[in-house]
């Protein structure tokens, strides 16, 4: 989710596989799998001893050969062909092609920081420390607490000029987004966190609006001062946008049964297609988490078949669908 599942050259796909399947626990052992774009040549290139079912080992492509993934506070970078591997303390939230760095949130007690790791040198930098956030208290009416407040979701703009992250203040589902320079300077608040947000481009965010403005779960785009720029699509939950910014895949809101996966055209409030219908997997933490391929012709998502008790990664080829929908007169 929020990363491309295919390699930079589009020839390989990476995903997380839980050999024991999702269950009542939120985490478990996880394999990192790479396959050819047609699903063939499946092979394990790494593993995590305890990955959350919600996001797995978060495999993230560095280039056409190297893949980053996380395992209990360590980020591994593996050459999927040669098998060569380097490891650094940290995790994976977002990778910056512009800066050659992985950004992540370390939420261990006594280590609460927003960090970066240079993938060439292995140099680890603490960019923002939790004690710095005390200046913004109270946050959502909640006083600062080093123990209760936590960091999550570190993102970086495509050009590497800004980073953003969320701070959860301990209140149920209450979180706020902050911005900073890539070295941690110029730290300042954006405001309440949209649902499943990230950078749209170098100067704006997008996400589903469940708490900020209209609270109707429409996908909106905001500038970095928090002003609404546009409505991108109608209701949804985990939303992803095609690289050309014309198509959106998202699904019905939390708790829906069945779960419906939609294809929207940008700016439209009604979906063009329902791509799939699936059994709910909310209780398994195996959320849909759609992600477009780099060429925008395919979308990958977690799918729980009707009557199913688990989740599998599926690929939906959108070439014919988008061609047909694009030919429809506005």
Summarize, please.
With 330 residues, the chain is mainly β. It is 2% helix and 45% strand.
What order do the helices and strands come in, and which of them pair?
Blueprint lengths: L11 E6 L9 E10 L6 E10 L7 E2 L4 E6 L2 E6 L5 E5 L4 E3 L4 E6 L6 E6 L5 E6 L20 E7 L6 E6 L6 E6 L7 E5 L2 E7 L2 E5 L9 E6 L4 E8 L4 E2 L5 E5 L7 E7 L7 E6 L12 E2 L5 E6 L8 E6 L1 H8 L4
Antiparallel strand pairs: 1-2, 2-3, 4-5, 5-6, 6-7, 8-9, 9-10, 10-11, 12-13, 13-14, 14-15, 16-17, 17-18, 18-19, 20-21, 21-22, 22-23, 24-25, 25-26
Describe the model.
The structure is a single chain. It is globular and about 50 Å long. It has 1 helix and 26 strands. The chain has a 4-stranded antiparallel beta sheet with strand order 4-5-6-7, with no helix packed on it. Strands 8-9-10-11 form a 4-stranded antiparallel beta sheet, with no helix packed on it. Strands 12-13-14-15 form a 4-stranded antiparallel beta sheet, with no helix packed on it. Helix content is 2%, strand content 45%. The protein has 330 residues and is mainly β. It has one helix spanning 319-326, and strands at residues 12-17, 27-36, 43-52, 60-61, 66-71, 74-79, 85-89, 94-96, 101-106, 113-118, 124-129, 150-156, 163-168, 175-180, 188-192, 195-201, 204-208, 218-223, 228-235, 240-241, 247-251, 259-265, 273-278, 291-292, 298-303, 312-317.
């Amino acid at each position: 989710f929020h990363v491309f599942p295919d390699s930079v050259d589009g020839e390989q796909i990476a995903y997380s596989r839980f050999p024991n399947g999702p269950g009542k626990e939120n985490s478990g052992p996880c394999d990192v799998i790479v396959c050819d774009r047609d699903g063939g040549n499946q092979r394990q290139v790494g593993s995590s001893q305890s990955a959350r079912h919600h996001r797995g080992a978060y495999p993230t492509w560095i280039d056409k050969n190297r893949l980053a993934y996380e395992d209990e506070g360590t980020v591994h970078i593996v050459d999927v062909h040669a098998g060569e591997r380097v490891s650094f303390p940290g995790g994976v939230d977002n990778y910056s092609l512009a800066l050659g760095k992985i950004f992540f949130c370390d939420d261990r007690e006594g280590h609460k920081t927003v960090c970066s790791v240079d993938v060439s040198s292995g140099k680890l930098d603490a960019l923002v420390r939790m004690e710095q956030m005390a200046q913004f208290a109270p946050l959502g009416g909640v006083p600062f607490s080093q123990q209760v407040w936590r960091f999550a979701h570190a993102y970086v703009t495509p050009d590497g000029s800004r980073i953003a992250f969320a701070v959860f203040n301990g209140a149920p589902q209450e979180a706020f987004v902050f911005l900073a320079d890539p070295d941690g300077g110029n730290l300042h608040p954006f405001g309440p966190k949209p649902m499943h947000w990230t950078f749209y481009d170098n100067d704006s965010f997008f996400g589903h609006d469940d708490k900020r403005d209209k609270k109707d779960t429409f996908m909106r785009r905001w500038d970095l001062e928090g002003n609404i720029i546009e409505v991108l699509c109608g209701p949804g939950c985990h939303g992803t946008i095609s690289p050309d910014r014309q198509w959106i895949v998202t699904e019905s809101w939390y708790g829906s049964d069945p779960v419906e996966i939609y294809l929207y055209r940008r700016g439209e409030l009604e979906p063009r297609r329902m791509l799939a219908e699936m059994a709910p997997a909310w209780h398994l933490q195996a959320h849909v988490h759609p992600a477009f391929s780099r060429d925008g012709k395919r979308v990958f998502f977690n799918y729980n078949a009707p009557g199913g008790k688990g989740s599998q990664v599926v690929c939906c080829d959108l070439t014919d669908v988008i061609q047909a929908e694009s030919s429809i007169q506005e």
